[in-house]
Amino acid sequence: MAKSTDTGSTDSARERHGKPVGVLEQAADVFDQTVELRRNLHRWPELGNDLPKTREQVMEQIQHLPLDITLHSTTSGIAAMLTGDKPGPTVLLRGDMDALPMPEDTDIDFKSNVDGMMHACGHDQHTAMLVGAAKVLSARKSDIAGRVLFMFQPGEEGFGGAEFMLDEGILNVPHLANGSESPVTGAFALHVSTNIPNGMLAIKGGPTMASSDTLSITITGRGGHASSPHFALDPVPVACEIVQALQIMVTRRLDVFDPGVVTVTTISAGTASNVIPESVVIKGTIRAVSEGTRNKIHDNIRRLAETIAAAHEMSAQVELGWGYPVTVNDADFADFAFDVATALVGDKAVIKMPAPVMGAEDFSYVLNKVPGSMMFLGASPDGIDPRSAPPNHSNRAVFNEATMKNGVAMYTSMALRHLGVPLS
After folding, report:
1. The pLDDT of residue 173 is above 80
2. What's the confidence (pLDDT) of residue 265?
3. Global pTM?
4. Catalytic (active site) residue 324
5. 231, 224 in Cβ contact below 8 A?
6. Which of 170, 183, 197, 376 is 20 to 30 A (C-alpha) from 366?
7. Residues 156, 163, 401, 411: which is the catalytic one?
């Protein structure tokens, strides 16, 4: 664990000319630094749980703040604790740090310098905004009754970085004075989106993002000459039948108000136009917004594939991989975040989402242990209708940097309000 005592460059910013400075103004004070860090992270994206360059850049920004810093050993995760001048609970703020394995086809000046890697989901912004919030909150250390735990997390894009950090004990917060635990009583994360108007904040209580599982079905028949299918057991039409049955299952076996998605993304078979292959492999993704529907989809996939294959005298080997669970926002905490956002940016810039997003998030692991919420932050490019902007995970996604001022302010405000500090 490392400890620093410098309060950073914003200590004198809390009052200016004898008047209190608001959180949005403090966020504006660190905006240029936030943008610079974001661009540096964007130029040098890294994948998975091992992010040495990213960790180094974050550490350069926070090591001089009054934080107790723990570098995790199983991943490049960083846990940084700000302890206020008065006792109280602990609130966790999370920012994910990893990029995606894809090319960048934008024309921005700071596009990726690494072939086949891109920050196409905005994690560079999440990390930079969380660093900005650490600077602002460090300047208000004397106001804070409790602690702020900054969770800089790798491996969100399918690598389960949050679960690794939980297993390594990020929620086990010892009290420095007497060795007892100061429990984490709330957790909060932001996620930018190019398809929400710039600067707007969106949230809902309850299921907010879907679970994410994988399917792989191998249908095995008997190969042969394509001119004589009656001498073979052709797995290709059986695979097609299974794909159609899966789509019918979604529309006829699942409650429309408790939805799920089964999408087949690859079908692999065959070597030549005159050869019936011995096997076909179907792969895809499974999404649900409740554990009940998630389990029902798994059961139905296995039954359909195995019985359809058996009806054609073939076999189906079904492999279902369990991924991230459903991301469930605590209803009360989501309402609290909505109220904080409304006080910060006004009611016209905050919305309650009508439905969950079918993407998945490993912040779900944190929310399974601590009441909290994830909120979406609009980052649509200037001059483009958010509905038609290249979305997150697009090779052409461009995120508006102006939104980061609201992001820094929202992280900061959630911590202060959760710890009972009124916003100036």
Report:
1. no
2. 97
3. 0.91
4. yes
5. yes
6. 197
7. 401
